[in-house]
Amino acid sequence: MKYRKMGKHGIKLSEISIGTMYYGSYIKKEAALACLTEALNQGINFIDCADRYGIDDSELPINQRMRAEIILGEFLLDQDRDDLVISSKVFKQLRESPNSGGLSRKHIRESIRDSLKYLQSDYLDIYYCHRPDRETPLEETIRTMTNLIEEGLVHYWGTSWWPPFLVERTIGIAKEHGLIPPAVEEPPYHINARFIEVELFDVAKYHGLGITAFEALASGFYTGKYLDSIPKDSRFSIEAIWKEIPKDLFEKRKAQLLKLMEIAKSIEIPLSQLALAWVLRRPEITSTIMGASKPEQVTENAAASDVTLDEETLDKIEKILDNIPTTPFRQWG
Which residues are catalytic? Predict the structure, then answer.
């Protein structure tokens, strides 16, 4: 496993990291713990979590879900916490209350208290604002995050799914008021979701911002295992984006996938490693976060850190994709 600095900052993250979005809902505790154990065996040191993971965006009855932070917290008890980079996120409204949700000082304080309790940890290495909050002044959010860092509860704070102009504005306000700016942004990024190349990469380079990207395998689509059928219990089947994609576009993606599989075969690697290595080709990327429901998936995906795609291979991929982005705004949530 190789490691990269998070932008200009001293902390180093594994190039391949593991996310916990479905831990506690579709991925039960035993399977989750097995995946986390294998992740550490493979040299992965960054584990990404969020307050809503496991209890939100699930069609399962609420009594069949468990907060992912609880599972991760149990796992951390048997590990050397200081060797790991653990993140969580704040924004989602998790209970019926006008002050639950968003990025107010009150809600951030409530969320960090609960996250640390469930994770059974004294601190978070990275704390993300999961979405922009249009109702809370940016300075209030920035000042609260600064306070958390000064109190030792958080080492770095970041944003997730924030448009580049808002990231830049946040950094500017932080500098204006002598506060601590975000150190990292977490957006989606895969071979057919390239909008962050337009502006975010420039913002990251200029300000020394790290980028921890997710969805390199597009819910497993870029493993090639869904070409013939989509199992009902697979992650791919439950992602809304794939339920809504037009049939003709889906068929276009499948045809594209077959060509990419030929490239992967020619250089003797699985398609999943090709997709992950393609994301890591950009130095702006600190780490790419994978999802996994089985330890063998972790093993295969982690090996992508050892794959370097040469210029000839990258040129072939570009010709197949034919999708260099031109505008970012329509794809930011």
Answer: 53
Domain extents in the chain: 3-331
* Non-local CB neighbours of 283 within 8 Å, separated by 6+ positions: none
Residue 154 is which amino acid? V
CATH number for region 3-331: 3.20.20.100
**DSSP-derived 3-state class of residue 171:** helix
DSSP-derived pairing of the beta strands 3-5 and 184-186: unpaired
Which residue shows structure tokens 């990327």?
Answer: 285
Q: What is the C-alpha to C-alpha distance for residues 188 and 42, in angstroms, rounded to an integer?
A: 23
* The one-letter amino acid at 115: S
Q: How does pLDDT run along the chain (333 residues), one tens digit per residue?
A: 999 999 999 999 999 999 999 999 989 999 999 999 999 999 999 999 999 999 986 677 766 789 999 999 999 999 999 999 999 999 999 888 999 999 999 999 999 999 999 999 999 999 999 999 999 999 999 999 999 999 999 999 999 999 999 999 999 999 999 999 999 999 999 999 999 999 999 999 999 999 999 999 998 889 987 776 566 655 655 554 555 667 777 788 889 999 999 999 999 999 999 999 999 999 999 999 999 999 999 999 999 999 999 999 999 999 999 998 876 555 544
Give the closest residue to 129 by CA, choosing from 146, 73, 7, 74: 146
**Cα dihedral: 65, 70, 71, 75 (round 10):** -170
| In contact, 196 and 328? CB cutoff 8 Å | yes
Element holding 127 (H helix, E strand): strand 124-129
Secondary structure class of 43 (helix, strand, coil): coil
Strands (E) in 130-252, as ranges, are: 154-160, 184-186, 210-214
- Give the span between the Cα atoms of 142 and 264, in whole angstroms: 44
Q: Which amino acid is at 66?
A: M
> Distance from CA of residue 327 to its chain's centroid?
22
C-alpha dihedral, 234 to 239 to 245 to 247, nearest 10°? 10
